[in-house]
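Write out the 3D structure for:
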Amino acid sequence: MRDLVLNLRELNDTNDPTMSLINTWDSIRVPIIVPVLRVAVYVCICMSVMLFVERIYMAAVIVCVKCLGKKRYTKYQLDAIKQDLERNKNHPKVLVQIPMFNEKEVYKLSIGAVSGLSWPSDKLIVQVLDDSTNETLRVMVELECRKWIEKGVNVKYETRNNRNGYKAGALREGLKKRYADECEYVIIFDADFQPDEDYLWRTIPYLIENPELALVQARWKFVNADECLMTRLQEMSLDYHFTVEQEVGSSTCSFFGFNGTAGVWRIKALKDAGGWKDRTTVEDMDLAVRASLRGWKFLFVGDLSVKNELPSTFKAYRYQQHRWSCGPANLFRKMLKEIILCERVSIWKKWHVIYAFFFVRKIIAHWVTFFFYCIVIPATILVPEVNLPKPLAIYLPAAITILNAISTIRSIHLLVFWILFENVMSLHRSKAAIIGLLEANRVNEWVVTEKLGNTMKQPKNNKGPKRSRFRFGERVQILEILVGMYLLHCAIYNILFGHNHFFVYLLLQAGAFFIVGVGYVGTFVPN
């Protein structure tokens, strides 16, 4: 009788889907999952160490630069060059390009700011490159240009019948104009950028003084950083990029990635590098790398900032990050051989471009953040046979995080939110980097980052609230929800069967994925 009961239990266990799933997991966990997970842990630890060493190196360079007061741009006698220009009246002719595409909310800001730049009017050409598909908006932009023409500013309004090459195509076509041949330097401002009046006086003299300089880059200042939590967190990430990455590149080997805007190019250098190419979605970085391989040098001016706008809707930010992560990875694939075989630059500079600039910062940084912190570490909770070295799993990421976030002291109290949000965004960045390396679907996807300008500051209509209309798919992100469910499962398992407190991090991170997954991040503008 007892044997009959035991046989019935075994039969029920076999027919129970849950027990079958548990038995299958137990059968593959030790022989298959454990070895694979161990390899993943070691690979991720190696990537973390690479990222940590890179962060320490850059921190050391910044400390030396700060303590010794040896920023590259401070060694030039800027005042003497200015006085010479004023005295001899030999100002070079400059071209300012403003590429735009359906920029209804911000076109007046950029055109007005650029038209107000301090420079002899006969030596300044403002070129508005309007690829807008909205005919009404085109008329509005052209009227704005005419307004400044009547005030004595030399504004050229240029349009195309197509968007071939996107931004790179527009800039390339702009330089083909006959009047552009008369200019020595070209400045690019995106449609939401608003330079101060003295911008040209604080950049052009560097290029006049040093004929080896190809590019002078200013940093960005975010006018809407306090609009919402998401913009504050973006500010923390971008401040590190400018304060540390750009400064280190400028100080050590005169190379960094052109940011696509708020920079002055020597037209001779731009043409020597092959001009604008549209083979990737990061035409600015492509040009910078090619110019560097031709021996040209770059200068970052950290105390010169240009006002601009951060994307405040998650949809706009997600598309921007896809482009910024996919493009560099794709460019790395296309230019690796060219960089290795280049004979005009030193081995040190090649190493810096290949290893530090591309591999660690543009690929490893994304992968280690997502795969290690959001996939591998939670997986070790479910597979206790895999030992996770706590110093490398906890203290190393903590050190990397502090080195990243210390650039924005005013937001240091948001450090936990920044960590959680960056981990969520690493999902999109890692996916985009893989797409770029494999040249898969969406590799050349170009979606212009939506700018709101003063839209969110406009007084609200007093007729009563209208129901916001939006598509379900615009707010709900399936991937984020799936990762959040995975992390929540790991957290619950850790609470029930674990012997540590990893569940605290897992619950917080799962919550962050769920919040983003249901669209409750950033501002929301109804259609």
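The longest strand covers residues 297-308.
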